[in-house]
């Protein structure tokens, strides 16, 4: 899994029928220090994540299984909304502190 920040949504009116009703998010990957990386990814949202939230992303066959159908053409799925991230006794992200 990878940590990422929700940067926006992706809307597509023409897509594979198995993706109908699936919300797609544009994510920017985050490193272990909490810095945004110059890497973006589109992922299916399974948890109702919103703009600027930090999330966990699962990839490949695990992403397809999360949505309950291995036949969907997915490479990534958001599987959790992060509340806090601690690294070596320090907090690099806290959801409650973000919105003060």
Automatic annotation (TrEMBL):
GO BP, one annotated term: carbon fixation
InterPro entries tied to this protein: CcmL, EutN_CcmL, EutN_CcmL_sf
Entry-linked Pfam families: EutN_CcmL
Sorted UniProt keywords: Bacterial microcompartment, Carbon dioxide fixation, Carboxysome, Photosynthesis
Record flagged with keyword Ion transport: no
Claim: Transmembrane helix is one of the keywords in the record: no
The record's note on its domains: The tight homopentamer forms a pore with an opening of 4-5 Angstroms in diameter which opens into a wider tunnel at the base of the truncated pyramid. The pore is positively charged.
HAMAP family, A to Z: CcmL
Protein name in UniProt: Carboxysome shell vertex protein CcmL
Annotated source species: Cyanomargarita calcarea GSE-NOS-MK-12-04C
Gene (UniProt): ccmL
């Amino acid at each position: 899994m990878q940590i990422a920040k929700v940067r926006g949504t992706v809307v597509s009116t023409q897509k594979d029928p198995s993706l109908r009703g699936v919300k797609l998010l544009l994510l920017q990957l985050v490193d272990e220090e909490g810095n945004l990386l110059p890497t973006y990814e589109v992922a299916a949202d399974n948890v109702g994540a919103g703009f600027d939230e930090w999330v966990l992303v699962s990839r490949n066959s695990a992403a397809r299984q999360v949505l309950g159908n291995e036949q969907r053409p997915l490479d990534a799925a958001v599987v959790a909304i992060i509340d806090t991230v601690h690294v070596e006794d320090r907090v690099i992200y806290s959801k409650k502190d973000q919105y003060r």
